[in-house]
Amino acid sequence: MVLAPGSDALGSRGAVLRARSTSVSGLGAFAAFGAAALCLAFSSKVNSESFTPKFAVALLFAAVGIVPLARLFRAPSAIRWAARGAVGFLLVALVSALVSPSPALGIFGLYTWGTGWLLWLAAVGAFAIGASLGPEDRCWLFAGLLVGALGNALVAVYQIVVQPQGGGLVLYDGLQADGLLGNPIHLEALLLGALALVLGRACRSPLRWGAAVMLLAVGLEFTFERFALGILVLLVLYALYSYGLRRGGVFAVLIGIGYGIAYLSGGSGLGQRVTSGSADTTFGIRPRVWLEGAHYLLHHPLLGVGPGQFRTAMDSTATLSFFQNVLAGRILTDGHDIFAEVAVTTGFLGLICFLVWLTGAARMVARCSFLGFGAAMIAVGLVEPMNVAILPLVFLGLGAATAVRMRTHDKPAADASQPESGQLTPNGAVTLNARRASPYAIVTTIVALAIALLLGGTMVVGDAYMFNGTHHALGQPYDIVSAKDASSLLPYWPDSALVVAQIEAFDSTSAGPGARAALAQSRNWTAVAVNRDRSNPYLWVLLAGGDIDLREYGRAKADYLRALSCDKWYAGAFEGLGRLAGIQHKWQTAIHWYRLALVTVVKDTQDIVLLRSELAFAERNARTGHS
Description:
Elements: H1 26-40, H2 51-64, H3 66-74, H4 79-98, H5 103-108, H6 117-131, H7 135-162, H8 184-204, H9 206-223, H10 227-264, H11 269-276, H12 279-299, H13 310-317, H14 320-327, H15 338-362, H16 369-380, H17 390-403, H18 439-470, H19 480-489, H20 494-508, H21 515-532, H22 537-549, H23 553-566, H24 571-583, H25 587-600, H26 605-624
Helix pairs in contact: 1-2, 1-7, 2-6, 2-18, 3-4, 3-6, 4-6, 4-15, 6-17, 7-8, 7-9, 8-9, 8-10, 8-16, 9-10, 12-13, 12-15, 16-17, 18-19, 18-20, 19-20, 20-21, 21-22, 22-23, 22-24, 23-24, 24-25, 25-26
């Protein structure tokens, strides 16, 4: 087994084998800085502080990974099967996206989620980059990953201790630290991966690495996420098994000290969440979602619904029971399991290719710190949503773990004994960095980077304009010009068009004689949003509301019915049809729709009170014959 310097590839009892160090390559430097940027990219001046900056970085991994992926694809080694599975998965996912109900969302994913085809391209690119790294490159990658994780842990400490009341670093739901990742579950995944990354070093040199382990544990406790406890137990058991009772016990003690410090510093929320968790909220919903996903897969077995459109699949197949117990009050944008997500969005064809990719990579991985990093993070991905930063990092670590077993030679190209890139070395390993990149590879990378920078740049700038549109100035809360610029720069997401629609609706309240024109503009911009995501029942309900404001009752009814064609149990459409019937004094029809709405919201107390009030009003008018 060939091991990277600094990578914890273990022999018996934790012995570490090391390979000869060479100078870092450009690819290695990109991997290191890109990994840190995925963790740390953040801006309080964009509408979604962490999403678009990280998506822009992920696109760079997609661009830079194209050439390494092509080399892996042709490599006469077992690694080529992983690469071919990944390429097959990308092709299936691309076709699925293009034939999906919303092709633009299939490519880009939903706003603030981004789990479309481009994210998978970034994950495959990250895997190819990781698998192409030499020994010194992997040292740099280790440093980049650790810097990103420790930076997020420090931000988590700041959030809990200071508890800022404004800005982009406010606590998630007012309680949990989410670092620079936008959600505590993603911070949980990153910090667990980082603990696995430093596990071997901490066991061998606790004085040197103890502070890092404790800081990561403090940040992890501040997320108040319960699933982390199970992964930590597995990490401790692995440390005890590989390094013995004394060294493994030290690692366990360091984590315990970190959790203790966090608890004494205000981190009591974890205990509250553990004791308040119920089978219904913790264990009941996910299996129901997975079963519903399996039901959808059986009816759409080849290509699924399209990447990033898990919500569409759930809406289209939702039964009344499923809506009452799962969908009511929730928007299911993710399968909370990476395999369920892949299966539902890309079908059996995509799932098979995905498994070929993973199993091909699993055959090549070395037992090292990068494998632990990826494995710990993907374990969280078995029960939690995917993320634009976490998914590429998982496959970057997995790729680096395969690179540990592939000897990379950095001898001069003039050495006749040196095999070319992609050729077998005498010991049967693959060399990927043995020759200079061809002109075609350089041009391909430059063009891909230019496209990635253009897309990523317009995302961040458009998101900044969206932020300015709704956070303009005191006395002038909205900026319609910035909002329209955001819609032009982000034509693939309905959210930017909705911002313009909402501003026009707000302006109509003070427009006087021009109020109807402003309402018409609001309705037209809502229609733009609908055209960007035509399978979203919420958008159709909003469009119906705009038609009601314009007294276009026939169009409003058609919009509500279109919402029900997307989700036949959508409570907002039932309620809207009830109100529309009430406006037209069709009280028996209104009663019918209100009763249907009440059936769907059995678990939402606030909606039940409102609907019962509206139903009672309709029943009184029906009895008195009021018109």
